[in-house]
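User: Hey, my collaborator sent me this sequence without any context and asked if I could get a structure. I don't really work with proteins. Can you help?
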Amino acid sequence: MEKKSQQIRRVAILGAESTGKTTLARLLASHFNTVWVEEYARNYMQQNKTNYSANTIIEIAKKQLQKEEESCSKATEFIFIDTEFIIAKVWSEDVFGFCPTWINNQISEHRYDLYLLTDNNLPWIADPVRVNPERRDYFFTQYKNLLELNKLNYEIITGNEEDRLTNGINAIRKYFKKIV
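Assistant: No problem. I've predicted the 3D structure and written it out in structure-token form, which is a compact way to encode the shape of the chain:
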């Protein structure tokens, strides 16, 4: 199983709240006939509301990574991950004023083959776990800066749902020379 997971190309999807990360992950997985890993933090927050700490962010990130590793055995050529460590870092710094060392280490140690950064041009859709409608530009900029600082391969995904899928497919073509 380990050998197969090393051959899988991991594509992380990150962006501010309500920017279509989950939809993009699901659509790309469907297009490439593979699996995607849903955002564990969303499930946690639905159950626990705002009752969390910096240590909870580490627990959430570890659970996210566990789900990703478990899903690799079901993946074909790609796996699409809805949310990753950069989001955990920015969120922790924003809420608690610091980022736990474990999260920072994971950004360096657990690099994805490609990051798709979703733009903020979709309308805000409120739901019980979303809390920052007026700060999406701030979070987008933080994510973009960290991608660049860490010299990670990324593409900004913009447009409506259909355009985002096309742009995601084109990014995969560009980085993996995949004819799709």
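In plain terms: The radius of gyration is 15 Å. You can pass these tokens on to your collaborator as they are.
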